[in-house]
Write a structure and sequence with these properties.
- The protein is built from three helices and no strands.
- With 76 residues, the protein is mainly α.
- Helix 2 crosses helix 3.
- The protein is globular, with a radius of gyration of 14 Å.
Length: 76
C-alpha cells in the first residue's frame, strides 16, 4: 500500500481499511470482520455496481456470519 493511502487511512474519520488489488472482492468478508468484529452489515449498491460484483461481495459478507437477508430491489 502506498504511503499516501496509509496516511489517509490514519487520518480518516470513517474509513478504516481499504483494498486495491486483483481479487480484492474476495477479501471483503475478512476485512469487514477484522474492522467491525461482531457487527452486522447492510449492503447498498446501485444496479451497475451490484451487477459488477454485488453477489460476490454479499456472499463474502454474509456467509461467514450464517445470516442471509432477502435481497431487495427498489427503483429510485
Amino acid at each position: 500500500m502506498s504511503k499516501l493511502i496509509e496516511t489517509a487511512l490514519q487520518t480518516a474519520d470513517q474509513t478504516n481499511a481499504i483494498a486495491f488489488s486483483r481479487g480484492a472482492v474476495e477479501k471483503t468478508g475478512e476485512i469487514f470482520q477484522r474492522t467491525f468484529p461482531g457487527k452486522k452489515v447492510f449492503v447498498v449498491a446501485d444496479q451497475n455496481t451490484f451487477a459488477a460484483c454485488g453477489e460476490d461481495v454479499v456472499e463474502r459478507l454474509f456467509l461467514p456470519t450464517g445470516y442471509w437477508g432477502a435481497p431487495t430491489s427498489r427503483g429510485l
